[in-house]
Amino acid sequence: MSVAFVKEPNEDQVEVLPDRDLGTDPNIVTPRGLHLIDGEIAALDARLIEARDAGDKVALAHINRDLRYWKARHATAELVRPPHDPQTVQFGCVVSIERPDGREQRFTIVGIDEADPREGYLSYLSPLARTLIGKSVGDTVKAGASDAEITAIAAG
């Protein structure tokens, strides 16, 4: 039988990992978001050296894929600085809302990679951020199952 039809495992061969999806939405970032992207690249560069030194080909494949993603995110990043004295909710702004039960919440509208809702960072593409953008203090917005009032807007 021809060798061409025999698939022998090769310990030096690592599956090529598909690239991470970059999406099609604009990659707008805050100064904090750009700093976080730079941090990811630096951390991955350090891990890449460690993986090379260890000869860990699987780790190298994962790290190289992630590096391609973060470098592409950096290359396409559009830095947007929040306004100094915003009158309406915009990208980069910190927004405070009050819910009917008296609970207050603060959110910062940020880029996709910077989003962390548990920490109060909402992607500008999230439903709540889309509802908030363009609104002013005193406006009522739909926030989940109930309404909420915007009580403050500040530069991020």
From TrEMBL:
Keywords carried by this UniProt record: Elongation factor, Protein biosynthesis
InterPro entries per UniProt: GreA/GreB_C_sf, Tscrpt_elong_fac_GreA/B_C, Tscrpt_elong_fac_GreA/B_fam
Residues of the signal peptide: none
A molecular-function term among this protein's GO annotations: translation elongation factor activity
Residue ranges occupied by any Transcription elongation factor GreA/GreB C-terminal domain in the UniProt entry: 87-148
The keyword Protein biosynthesis belongs to this UniProt entry's keyword annotation: yes
Top-level taxon of origin: Bacteria
The UniProt record lists the keyword Protein biosynthesis: yes
Pfam families: GreA_GreB
UniProt protein name: GreA/GreB family elongation factor
